[in-house]
Amino acid sequence: MMVEFSSSAPTPEEMERDREIGRVLFAGEFNFVFGAQKLGQLPDPVLPEIAFAGRSNVGKSSLINALTGRRALARASSEPGRTKQLNFFELADRLTLVDMPGYGFAKAAKAVKEDWQGMMFSYLRGRPTLRRVVLLLDSRVEVKATDQEIMKLLDRAAVTFQVVLTKCDVPKPAVLEAKLREVTGIVATHAAAYPHVLATSSETGMGIEDLRAELARLANPV
C-alpha cells in the first residue's frame, strides 16, 4: 500500500494538465455504493480507493461534496461523531472514495480508540486497493493529540496518507502560512506521510483543483 514519492515537483504545464484530468474525472458519474458497519460488510475491492479521515466536524463531507461538485452527496451530520460506518462512493468507474467515521469527538473519546483502532485499523491495514488516506486537519485550530495518534496509526498500518487543511478561507494569510509550515514539519516526521500538504476551502474552492489533480493520478486509467 505504500508508494514511492517523486522527489521532483511537477512543472506548471504538468500541473495544468493534471488539473484538467482531475476536473474531467470528478465531473463524471458519482454514486453512493454501500455503507459498511462491519468488516464482513465491505464491498469487494475492485477500484483504487481513497479514504477520507479526520476529526469530527473537520469539514470532511463538505470537502467531498466540493470535490465532486455535488450538494449533499456526502451528508454532514448535525451531531459530530455520529457516523459510525465506512461509506463507499464510486467515481466514473475509475476510483472509489471512502468516507470514514470522524474521530476525536470529546463525548466519544473511549469509543474513538475502540472503533478507530479496531475496525478502522483492520480496514486500513488489510484493504489491498487502498491507495491513500486523505487526512483532514482544521486550519483554524491546533493539531490535536488525536490527530497525532492517527498519524502514528497510519504509520503502523503502512498506509500512505496526505494531510489536507480545511476551512483555509478563515485564517489570515500569515496565520495560514504559519499553519502550513507547522503541519509540514509534523508530516516530515512520519514515514507513511505524503510530503505535500494542501490548503483547501470548500466555501471558496481554494485548493480543490489541486486536490482533484492529486487524486486523479491514483485512479484507473481511462
TrEMBL record:
Task: Name any one Pfam family assigned in the record.
Answer: MMR_HSR1
- Keyword annotations of the record: Cell cycle, Cell division, GTP-binding, Magnesium, Metal-binding, Nucleotide-binding, Septation
Superkingdom of this protein's organism: Bacteria
The EngB-type G domain covers which part of the protein?
46-221
Q: Which cofactor does it need?
A: Mg(2+)
Q: Which family does it belong to?
A: Belongs to the TRAFAC class TrmE-Era-EngA-EngB-Septin-like GTPase superfamily. EngB GTPase family.
Tell me the HAMAP family matching this sequence.
GTPase_EngB (MF_00321)
Q: What does the record give as the function of this protein?
A: Necessary for normal cell division and for the maintenance of normal septation.
What's the protein called, per UniProt?
A: Probable GTP-binding protein EngB
From what organism does this protein derive?
Komagataeibacter intermedius NRIC 0521
